[in-house]
Amino acid sequence: MSEEETPPRIWRVLGDKKGDNAQVEVVAEALERQRGWTSELRHLEMLPKYVKGKPRVAPTLHHIDRARSDPLEPPWPDLILTRGRRPSNVALWIKAQSGGRTRIVLLGKPAGWLSHYLSQFDLVITSSETLPPPFANVMQIDLPLMQIGAGRLAAGRAEWQAALGPLPRPLVAFLIGGPTSPYVYNAEAEARMRARIAQVLAEGGTPYLVGSRRTPPGFLHRLQTGFPDALRVFDWARPEGGNPYTGLLALADRFVVTGDSISMQVEVARLGKPLEILPLPFGWLGRLDDARRRLAAWMFQPPRAGHAAEPVRLALARGLYHLRLMQQTRHFPRFHQILVDRGLASWAGEAGAGHTTDHALSSAAEGDVARILGRIDPLLRGL
After folding, report:
1. Backbone angles phi, psi at 231, to 5 degrees
2. Is residue 78's pLDDT more than 90?
3. Torsion of CA 359, 257, 51, 23, to 10 degrees
4. pTM over 0.85
5. What SS3 state is found at 69?
6. Which fold has domain 150-282?
7. Which of the residues 173, 175, 187, 190 could staple to 252 if both were Cys, CB 3.0 to 4.6 A apart?
């Protein structure tokens, strides 16, 4: 696109999930900084039924509260940046209203069975924890683009310095997610976490447990039972005193993150902080699910150069997906091993990753963003 041409009209179609939105903002900021293309936010509010409930995958607005959402009306955009099932449904609806002219860039794993609509997304960008079908409009990058900004980190440091600064060191933040297939939060998971908490206390340090909205009721209470007052806890269900998450990201010495939470693992890793991954047990169906995910990890891997049988594998993978015999998914152990192999993490309780002092992560992220922009440019030619 030459300087004389009108810049494209770009919309960021987003819901209320801050982690999802932050990844879209990374791409939008890069388009503005490197291409001079600004974008407009179209914020969506969901109807109560769909705040947590999952709408069907389709070009539809039936799940959003139009009165509380930003207006969706022509002139329609040339390009939409979006993420997540609910906003991507709206993006598909907008594309239909534009007569198919609007291009859609979807960041993250496509939701549900998208075999009918996958081709409607002009570019699907997934990171290495995701196993999408290997189609031409699918692009894989290194790590998710999520990162805590310097301003937010500085604000967290300022707000929590007085409370966290005097605590006995090492200050170890335990970031706890919740049950996600194939993982369960059972007595074995509790025992693994209590063992690591005991290690920190034996060192004279401070374990700080931070739950999330997915943490099972009562789990945090059981974790702290029998431990001394040196143990600190934030319970999402009873948020007395405010959420220390950002303050801990700025001030904690180490982090232990449960295996189900890729987003928290990536946010810690991108800060270059020592990260420990706490593996979680599988449920009785989880082992079967893990086997399915392992098969998908092999079947849906990106095209490999120099393998004579690649056309057969790719054709089989695409066929299984279209026949709804194999779905895109995530394989958590595969992603954990990527972090460990790269020296960005260790297993809980083991000596391993320390501070990342080089710029490898930021350079990788910049390279991924440059590749994304290189795939977006051709989508806008001729519009």
Report:
1. -75, 130
2. yes
3. 10
4. no
5. coil
6. Rossmann fold (3.40.50)
7. 173
